[in-house]
């Protein structure tokens, strides 16, 4: 009996994916990881990587400290101080111009000499301070160009006032004040507007100062994130060193490895030194910023006194009418003068602290409390106040320089950290390399 043809249909079976076979290197790594040579190599690699992490984070933290401190000490702080000095010099120059060019109030003889050398010296110092600020400033450098353009207009107005004052002084017969307009007073008013309006030179310089002041480090600044990573890497490295010591003691019966003790000592030294340097730099930076603010506050007090003395003289002839004042901001904000008004003694409080001396505060308040149209207030009162404020300002120069010097990290600290890291790597190799060579010879 013959069988008929097979009519069964073939059913395709679904393909079953087989697990991929690990490559050869992975199998070797897994097999060797549990051996003594494999553990030695793993500890060696882990300790070297941890050492590199400790070194990298420490060097980066020190570099950030150095860059921030050098920028604040060599650029930002001098720029802020120079900007405040420009306001002092301009206020004093305008004071000198007004006192020399306005007509006498009691029929005295009018001078033909003009503002004289003090005015020229103030203007020259303003130009030098502006150039230094332009060189060291970090932000808002266009403001310096604007101030320079405004200075041209201001100096032109003062020159016109000087020319008319000279013409009145040599005119024969002398003009009748009741029937003529004294153009020297008019041009001095123009100069005051250029100097003290809301878009004037003093406000532009103050905006420039505040913009650069904002780039000084905040209180308590430091590379704390990098320091945390640095200490974490150091703790990991210490843990690996302890683990390596326990492994060597268990496997090779070594009670203590002097190389690993040296590794631990160097790591503690690196982390401790970096932490101490960061903390000391943070405190010194805070002091440097405070001293910068003290110096600028004293400069603003000097500018306030010069503006008040100028108003004492100018107010007798023509009330000052200028635009709104610059809004108070930043350090000494409570005492920012309202330029459209005569400075008051209440504005002196924010400029001077208790350490500046009670007598100096009393002198400044006396000068500012006088009415703006008091012609009897002479140069002697202003000069006495300005001399006291300048002496206080000069007394802060040494603490300011000392604070910035203290803030600078130790010279070559980055290289010391690198050398210490290299020593750690060398000691680590000294621990593991002989045993790895021994196993290699056996194999």
In the predicted model, the low-confidence regions spanning at least 5 consecutive residues are 316-330, 333-340
Q: Fraction of residues in helices?
A: 55-70%
Radius of gyration: 38 Å
Largest sheet: none
Whole-number total of structural domains:
1
Number of helices: 12
Give the percentage of residues in beta strands: under 5%
Alpha-carbon distance between the two ends: 71 Å
Shape: rod-shaped
Keywords: Membrane, Transmembrane, Transmembrane helix
Organism: Parafrankia irregularis
Biased composition (Low complexity): 7-19
Transmembrane segments: 221-244, 256-276, 415-433
Task: Describe the secondary-structure layout.
Layout: H1 24-33, H2 36-101, H3 117-136, H4 142-170, H5 183-196, H6 201-213, H7 224-252, H8 258-314, H9 358-369, H10 379-395, H11 397-407, H12 413-442
Helix pairs in contact: 2-3, 2-5, 2-6, 2-7, 2-8, 2-11, 2-12, 4-5, 4-6, 7-8, 8-10, 8-11, 8-12, 9-10
Task: Describe the protein's architecture and organization.
- This protein has helices at about 25-35, 35-100, 115-135, 140-170, 185-195, 200-215, 225-250, 260-315, 360-370, 380-395, 395-405, 415-440.
- With about 450 residues, the protein is mainly alpha-helical.
- The chain has one domain (about 45-315, about 345-440).
- Helix 8 (about 260-315) runs antiparallel to helix 12 and helix 9 packs antiparallel against helix 10 (about 380-395).
- This is Secreted protein.
- Keywords: Membrane, Transmembrane, Transmembrane helix.
- It comes from Parafrankia irregularis.
């Amino acid at each position: 009996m013959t069988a008929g043809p097979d009519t069964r249909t073939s059913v395709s079976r679904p393909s079953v994916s087989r697990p991929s076979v690990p490559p050869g290197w992975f199998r070797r790594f897994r097999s060797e990881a549990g051996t003594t040579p494999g553990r030695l190599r793993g500890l060696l690699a882990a300790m070297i990587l941890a050492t590199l992490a400790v070194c990298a984070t420490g060097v980066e933290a020190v570099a950030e400290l150095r860059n921030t401190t050098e920028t604040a000490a060599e650029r930002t702080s001098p720029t802020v101080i120079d900007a405040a000095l420009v306001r002092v010099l301009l206020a004093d120059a305008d004071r000198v111009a007004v006192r020399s060019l306005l007509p006498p109030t009691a029929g005295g003889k009018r001078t033909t000499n003009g503002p004289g050398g003090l005015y020229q010296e103030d203007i020259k110092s303003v130009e030098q301070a502006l150039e230094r600020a332009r060189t060291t400033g970090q932000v808002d450098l266009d403001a310096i160009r604007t101030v320079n353009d405004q200075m041209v207009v201001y100096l032109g107005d003062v020159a016109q006032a000087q020319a008319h004052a000279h013409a009145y002084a040599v005119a024969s017969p002398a003009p009748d004040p009741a029937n003529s307009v004294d153009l020297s007073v008019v041009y001095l008013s123009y100069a005051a507007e250029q100097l003290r309006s809301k878009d004037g030179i003093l406000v532009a310089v103050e905006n420039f100062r505040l913009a650069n002041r904002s780039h000084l480090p905040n209180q308590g600044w430091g590379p704390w994130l990098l320091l945390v990573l640095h200490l974490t890497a150091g703790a990991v490295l210490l843990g690996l060193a302890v683990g390596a010591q326990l492994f060597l003691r268990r496997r090779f019966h070594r009670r203590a490895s002097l190389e690993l003790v040296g590794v631990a000592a160097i790591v503690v030294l690196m982390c401790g030194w970096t932490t101490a340097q960061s903390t000391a730099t943070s405190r010194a930076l805070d002091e440097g910023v405070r001293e910068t603010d003290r110096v600028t506050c004293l400069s603003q007090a000097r500018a306030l006194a010069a503006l008040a003395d100028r108003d004492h003289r100018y107010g007798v002839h023509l009330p000052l009418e200028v635009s709104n004042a610059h809004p108070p901001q930043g350090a000494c904000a409570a005492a920012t003068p309202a330029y459209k008004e005569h400075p008051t003694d209440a504005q002196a409080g924010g400029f001077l602290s208790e350490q500046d001396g009670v007598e100096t505060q009393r002198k400044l308040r006396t000068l500012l409390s006088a009415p703006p149209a008091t012609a009897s207030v002479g140069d002697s009162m202003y000069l006495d106040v300005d001399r006291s404020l300048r002496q206080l300002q000069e007394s802060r120069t040494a603490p300011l320089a000392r604070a910035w010097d203290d803030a600078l990290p130790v010279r070559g600290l980055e290289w010391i950290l690198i050398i210490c890291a290299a020593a750690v790597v060398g000691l680590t190799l000294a621990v593991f390399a002989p045993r790895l060579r021994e196993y290699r010879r056996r194999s």
